[in-house]
Amino acid sequence: MTKQQVIEAADVRKNYRGGTEGAGLNGFDLEVTAGTVTGLLGPNGAGKTTAVRILSTLLQLDSGTASVAGYDVRRQGAEVRRRIGLVGQYAAIDEVLTGRQNLVMFGRLNHLGHAKAVRRADELLDQFSLSAAAGQSVGKYSGGMRRRLDLAASLIVAPAVLFVDEPTTGLDPAGRLEVWTAIRQLVDNGTTVLLTTQYLEEADQLANRISMLKDGKVVAEGTPDQLKTQLGSDWLDLVLVDPAQVAQVLAFAEPLADGEIRVEGTRISVPVKDRTRALTVMANSLHEARIDPEDITLRRPTLDEVFLHLTGASV
Amino acid sequence: MSALGWAIADGWTITRRTLTHWRMQPGLMLFSWFFPVLMLLIFGSLLGGAMEFPEGESYYELLVPGIFALTMLFGLEGTMTAVTQDKDKGVTDRFRSLPMSSAAVVLGRCMADMLDTLVALAVLVATGLALGWRWHEGLPSALAAFGLLLLLRFALLWVGIFIGLSAKNAESLTVVQVLVWPIGFLSSTFVATSTMPDWLGTIAQWSPLSATATASRTLFGNPDASTTTTWIGSHSVLMAVIAPLVLTAIFLPLSAHRYRTLSR
C-alpha cells in the first residue's frame, strides 16, 4: 500500500451472468487517498453500483485486483468489512424500529457492548440532528431523515472509508441539502468517502476528485477544476440587447475564438484560450463600436459539458 | 469470543429485532396468531356438521391436529415475506457488509420464526382444548407430536428463506401465497385421505403435511382413518421425521449458498 491510498483498484472486470442484473465493469481503475471525497460519476448503467458492491465485498470480481485499507477485497473480506461503512442505494434501516433502536442494533452487530452501543447511538443521533425523532418509528421519518439515519448507521465504528451509493436519488431538494450537509460534516471530520452519483452538481459540490465512468471504465479522472480544464478552453459569454448586432460582434469574436463559436439568439459563446486578453479585447471592440451588451462573462466549462463531451450521454 | 459464540450473540441481536417488532405492532401480531384459530372455528363449524362421526366424537378431534400442521405450513409465508423485505430494502446488504457472523442473519430469522410458531401453537392448543379436543396417549406422546410439528416448521423455514432470497420482490411472493392453499387442502389436514378418490388420496398421503398431521393424530390418540388403510398411513410417524429432515437437507445448503452469492 502506498502511503495514504485507502482504495486501490486495478483493471477490475465483472460480467453478470444473464446481463440484466446490473452493469458490469470493463477494466475499472481507481485510487482514493485518505481524507478525500471521491465522486464516481456516470449515467445509469455505467457500473457505479457494481464498483461499490465489489469494493465493499458484497460482490466477487471476475479479474483484476482491488484493495481497501490495504486488504484484498477478494481474499480478506472480513478484514475489509471491519473497516468500511456502506450506505446503499436504499435506506437500509428497519422501518418498524425507532431511530435509536436501529442504531443500537447495528452497534451490537458491530460487536459493541450494550452500554457502548447505546452511548454511540445517542452521539450519532445528535451529530445527524435526529435526537428529537430518536424515539419515533423510522416509518414516520422523511426521506432526508432516513438517509441521515442510514449514514449514521454506517459510522458506528469510524470506518477507514465510507461508501455512499447515490445518496440523494429520490429525495426532494430539502432532503438533498440535509444529506449534503451531513456528508460535508463527515468530510470535515476526516472520513474518507467514495460517493457515486449521477448528478453532476452533487459531484461538483461534494467531491475533491471525480472519476467519470462510462461502460464500466473510468474515462476521465481529476479534480473538478482539472476535468473542466481538460475539456479545453474557457468560454466568453456575451448576451446582446439587439439581434441586429450579432453579426458585428461575431466579427470581433472570430480572431479570439479557439474553436467553434455557438450562437443562440442574442447569446454568443466564444471558446477562448487566453481568457483575460480575450475579455479586454472584446470589451474594447464593443466600446469602440458603441455596443452595450446586456451581459458579458468569462466562465469555465460546466461539468455538464465535460460529462457530455466524455460520455456522449444525454443528461 | 469464538466464531460460534459470535454467531449466537449476533443471531440473538437479530432475533431481538423481531421481538421488538412484536412490541411495536401488537395488532398485527395478534392477528397473525389468531388467524389459525379463525380457520379452526370456520372449518370446524362449516364442515363439522356435514360429517358423520361415531357417537360422542366431534370433528375437532380430527381437525385440531390438522390445523396445527396447516399452521406450520402457513408460517412459510411470514418467513418468506420477512426475508424478501430485508433483501429488497437493502437491510440484508447492510448485514452482509458488517463484520458480524454471516450465519447470524439466518440464525436470527430461525429463532424469531420458531418463537413466533410457539406462540401461535400455544394459542391454538388453548382454543382446541376449549373446544373439546384432547390428547389421549399421555403427555410424553403429546410432546412428541408437538416436536414433530415444530420439526416441520423448522424444515419449512429453510424453504421460506430460500424462496424469500430468490424472489425478485415482495409482489412475486403472491404466487406462493396462493399455492399454500391447495397444498394445505391436498393433505389429511381437513379430512382423512381415505375419503378422497384413490389417485388424489395417494398424492395427498405422500404430502409431508399429511405425514405430520396424521403422525400427530396418532401420537395424540385422535382418529385418522388413513392410519390403518395404507403403508404410508401406518408409517406416518416415520415419514413425519424423515420428510422434514430431507427438506432441511435440501434447502438449508441452498439457502446458505443463496445468501452468500446474493446477486452475483
TrEMBL record, chain A:
Recorded topology in the membrane: Peripheral membrane protein
Q: Which Pfam families match?
A: ABC_tran
Q: Which domain of life is it from?
A: Bacteria
The subcellular localization recorded is: Cell membrane
Which GO molecular function annotations are given, in alphabetical order?
Answer: ATP binding; ATP hydrolysis activity
Residue ranges annotated as transmembrane are: none
Q: What is this protein called?
A: ATP-binding cassette domain-containing protein
Automatic annotation (TrEMBL), chain B:
GO BP annotations, alphabetical order: response to antibiotic
Q: Which GO terms describe its molecular function?
A: ABC-type transporter activity
Transmembrane stretches, start-end? 27-50, 62-83, 104-131, 143-165, 172-192, 232-254
How the protein sits in the membrane? Answer: Multi-pass membrane protein
Where would I find the ABC transmembrane type-2 domain in this sequence? 27-262
Task: Provide this UniProt record's keywords sorted from A to Z.
Answer: Antibiotic resistance, Cell membrane, Membrane, Transmembrane, Transmembrane helix, Transport
- A cellular component term (GO) from this record? ATP-binding cassette (ABC) transporter complex
Family of the protein in this entry: Belongs to the ABC-2 integral membrane protein family.
From the Swiss-Prot or TrEMBL record, give the protein name: Transport permease protein
State the taxonomy lineage.
Bacteria, Bacillati, Actinomycetota, Actinomycetes, Propionibacteriales
